[in-house]
Automatic annotation (TrEMBL):
This is ATP-dependent DNA ligase. Residues 1-81 form the DNA ligase D 3'-phosphoesterase domain. PANTHER family: DNA LIGASE D 3'-PHOSPHOESTERASE DOMAIN-CONTAINING PROTEIN (PTHR39465:SF1), DNA LIGASE D, 3'-PHOSPHOESTERASE DOMAIN (PTHR39465). It comes from Mycobacterium angelicum. Gene3D superfamilies: 3.30.1490.70, DNA ligase/mRNA capping enzyme. GO terms for biological process: DNA recombination; DNA repair. Pfam families: DNA_ligase_A_M, LigD_N. It comes from the Bacteria.
Length: 179
């Protein structure tokens, strides 16, 4: 699924069947050297289980419905064959046990005291302190909301951030940072 699974029911994404891979690949992360088959960086973006509701693998009218239970993606999806190895991935409207976060219940990440002594460089990161206001931003398929650290709605105070809603129109994301 080149552009990931859709996160809403109004969008379909292309899914392309690939060859079967050995089960050992399910845990492989790393780099495949240039010139080798499948060359490039390999990451495991999500893992989990699934339940199959429907499996109709007809070469012309195939349809598969699954419930995904992953660490990042959960939900009920349909794969609809359009042509040969090409399918449409569609998020179904009636979701079972859908996990939805409430923007109003989220809190910004705040700096905490700590030490990096004894940690390898790859085990820590830092964020510079800017002299702005800590904000949470929710961009939800064309709409944007901003909330201050204290929970106050400050959307009207930052009209320049409305462009985020347009840039992220196909997504539902929450950003945490300073403005």
């Amino acid at each position: 699924v080149p552009k990931n699974l859709p996160d809403n029911t109004s969008v379909n994404h292309l899914a392309i069947h690939t060859e079967d891979h050995p089960l050992e690949y399910a845990t492989f992360e790393g780099a495949i050297p240039s010139g080798e088959y499948g060359a490039g960086k390999v990451i495991i973006w999500d893992s989990g289980t699934y339940d199959t509701e429907k499996f109709h693998d007809d070469p012309h009218t195939g349809e598969v419905i699954v419930n995904l239970h992953g660490g990042r993606i959960s939900g009920r999806y349909a794969l609809i064959r359009t042509n040969g190895d090409r399918w449409l991935a569609h998020r179904l409207k009636n979701q079972k046990d859908q996990k939805v976060f409430e923007f109003d219940n989220l809190a910004p990440m705040l700096a905490t005291h700590g030490t990096v002594a004894g940690l390898k460089a790859s085990q820590w990161a830092f964020e510079g302190k800017w002299d702005g206001y800590r904000l949470l931003v929710e961009a939800d398929h064309g709409a944007v909301r901003l909330r201050s650290r204290s929970g106050r709605d400050v959307t009207a105070e930052y009209p320049q951030l409305r462009a985020l809603a347009e840039d992220l129109a196909d997504h539902h994301v929450v950003l945490d940072g300073e403005a």
